[in-house]
Automatic annotation (TrEMBL):
Pfam families: Peripla_BP_4. GO terms for cellular component: cell envelope. Belongs to the bacterial solute-binding protein 2 family. It is found in: Cell envelope. Gene3D superfamilies: 3.40.50.2300. One of its GO terms (molecular function) is carbohydrate binding. Keywords: Signal. PROSITE patterns: PROKAR_LIPOPROTEIN (PS51257). Residues 32-51 are annotated as: Disordered. Residues 59-315 form the Periplasmic binding protein domain. This is Ribose transport system substrate-binding protein. The keyword Protein transport does not apply. It comes from the Bacteria.
């Protein structure tokens, strides 16, 4: 049995069975308050607070290419958060969808001796060995969004809630059309082969079942504007009447809304997914079929920066009673409507 060195300053115990799952919203980005906090602390912060300047922390950050509004926002929010701290030096690797290149980026961070690595892997399984290598070298890894296939490859994992997104969307649609036994509910998914899409669809199906509804018409797109427009056009052609539709992703939703406009259809309500700013502005203006969207936080990388800083500086999350940063944070998936959109618009991303 191999023995890894004890991780410096963080006292990281890595028994897989000890994983603690906390569904916390307090230090995430789902409120106006947390959006302001995402800009970071300052050296003028209150003495004794987590934001008080301390020992300089060098953090390596790597994420996939910014070929999607949500993904671009991940890196932007991470940079913005790091810039808010006088005691954080952030090294950002160029975004890439090349697994071998991302592996080499992490190896470079290891060789440079950074204090922590925040990593949103293009492929969680493929990046697991190099993350284990970093952990073995005493560098805590914060795994963002796409999980490694070994829990020992990360000190902290920050996740959205794909199943919860489906539940939130389904519950909202139940509130709108659940009393109509003949309601026609449709779904425009993302890439069907991905577990995240399967989780979202399962949550949606389960929530609809609670009010006696189900998915009458379903198509899948690919998280792109073009794919969304094509899938929505096929859906509208196949379903002459719809009462409610959930589109999994606001980036592909740009194409979905274009197809709806081209078809001249407006007899239904639509719920989006992920929480883009342009979707929220439409919800706020009430200028079309889009009445709500479900958050999948694009500030997970920013959360990773804050947690990396806390770990290296031997601090804990001040809103919990624990003396160590927890192993896992799963972020909430709230529904944004015209009534509460002002709380979320400031932390939204542009599609």
């Amino acid at each position: 049995m191999s023995h890894r060195p004890v991780l410096r300053r963080t006292q990281i115990g890595l028994a897989a069975a000890a994983t603690s799952l906390l569904a916390l919203t307090a230090c995430t980005s789902n409120t106006t308050e947390s959006s302001e906090a995402a800009t970071g602390g300052t050296s003028q912060a209150e003495a004794g607070s987590n934001d008080e300047a301390g020992e300089t922390v060098v953090i390596g950050f790597s994420a996939p290419a910014a070929d999607h509004g949500w993904m671009a926002a991940i890196t932007d929010a991470a940079k913005s958060t790091a810039e808010g701290y006088d005691d954080v030096e952030l090294k950002v690797a160029e975004g890439t969808n090349d697994v071998n290149l991302q592996i080499s980026q992490v190896e470079t961070f290891i060789n440079e001796g950074v204090d922590a690595i925040v990593l949103l892997p293009f492929d969680g399984a493929a990046m697991t060995p190099v993350a284990l290598k970093a952990m073995a070298a005493g560098i805590p890894v914060i795994n963002v969004d796409r999980e490694f296939n070994d829990p020992n490859a990360a000190r902290v994992t920050v996740l959205g809630d794909n199943y919860g997104m489906g539940v939130s969307a389904g519950q909202y649609i139940c509130e709108q059309v659940g009393d109509d036994a003949d309601a026609v509910v449709a779904e425009i998914a993302g890439i069907d082969s991905l577990p995240l899409t399967q989780d979202r669809s399962q949550g949606f199906e389960d929530a609809l079942a609670e009010c006696g509804q189900d998915v009458d018409n379903r198509v899948a797109a690919d998280f792109t504007v073009e794919g969304g427009e094509k899938a929505a056009a096929n859906l509208l052609q196949a379903a002459p009447r719809i009462d409610a539709v959930w589109n999994h992703d606001d980036d592909q939703g740009v194409g979905v809304l274009a197809a709806i406009e081209n078809a001249g259809r407006d007899e239904f309500i639509m719920v989006g997914g992920a929480g883009s700013a342009n979707a929220m502005r439409s919800i706020q203006a009430d200028d079309g079929v889009l009445k709500a969207t479900v958050i999948y936080p694009s500030t997970q990388g920013a959360d990773g920066i804050k947690l990396a800083r806390l770990l290296v500086q031997d601090k804990a999350m001040s809103d919990t009673v624990e003396v160590e940063v927890p192993r896992m944070l799963q972020l909430f998936a709230p529904v944004v409507t015209q009534e509460n959109v002002d709380e979320f618009l400031g932390s939204a991303f542009e599609s």
